[in-house]
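sorry for the late reply, my laptop died twice this morning and i had to redo everyting from scratch. anyway the thing you sent over, i finally got around to it. pasting the sequence first so we're on the same page, its 273 residues, then the predicted structure underneath. double check i copied it right bc i was rushing
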Amino acid sequence: MLAALCMHAANDNIGINMTNPTSTTDARVLIHTSMGDITVALYGDTPLHRANFLRLAREGYYDGVLFHRVIKNFMIQTGDPDSKTAGPDAMLGAGGPDYTIEAEIVYPRHFHKRGVLAAARTGDNVNPERRSSGSQFYIVTGNVYSEGQMKGLEHNLEMQNLQNIFNSLAAQHNDTIMAMRRSRDREGLMALQEQLAAEAEKIAAENPVKLTPEQIDIYTTVGGAPHLDGTYTVFGEVTEGLEVVEKIENVATGRADRPTEDVKIISMEILDE
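ok and here's the structure:
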C-alpha cells in the first residue's frame, strides 16, 4: 500500500558530491581484523565509493573501528569512527565524516549476494537520494532462498518500487502538499494522492522490477539479502577471507546487535589500485 501524503517528509539530507575519482578500474584492499584477514575488491564502476574507500584506508581512518552491528544470516557492519573509543554501553552507528556520497546503484549488475560490500545510509524518509555514509559499510552474509520465496521477494520488490516512485512524485509536489496541510485541505490532499498513485502505477507498469536469472541462481544457491537490492550502493565484494566474515557473523551479540566482545579492524592495506 502506498504511504499517505500526510506521512511524506521533506528532504533535509545534506551531502557533497565527490568529483574526479582517480580511476575506474577495480582495486583490492586487505582488511586486517582481530579475527583474521579479509581481501576485498572495489568495483571500478562505482568510482566515487572506490576512491573514497581507498582514501580513508590510506589515511588510516578505519584503523581501530569496531564491527558495531552484527546480525547472523544478514550482515556485519563497520566504519563508525566513534566506535574506536566507545565504552561497552555506547550506542553506535551515527558516526562518520562530515559528508555523504552520491549514490552509485549499479543494479542489477551489482546486487546483494553473499560477500558483497555495500554502503550504509540513512533512510529514504530523510535521504530520498539514497546518498551513502561517508565511511560506514556492511558485508552481506544473508540467507539461501527457495524458488517460491524468490517469487514472493520479487513481488515485494515490485511493491517497494511502486512506493519509491510514489515517494519521488510526492517529493516533487512537496510545496503544494505543505500548503494543503497548512490550510487543512484534506479533500485536496486525497485528490492529489489518488492522482500521484495512478501516475506511480503507470510508471511502475512501464518499468517492471524483475529479478535476473543470475540473481535467482545466486540467491537460491549462495544466498544474500535480495530485499535490499536496488536501494543501497553495492561497491565491492570479498575475494578472500569469507570464512573470517562468517566467524564475525557468528559472534555473540547484545544490545543493538553489537558484539559482546569487541571485533575490530586493525588496519587496511591497499594491494592494487
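Confidence is low (pLDDT under 50) at residues 1-19.
thats about all i looked at so far, will dig more tmrw
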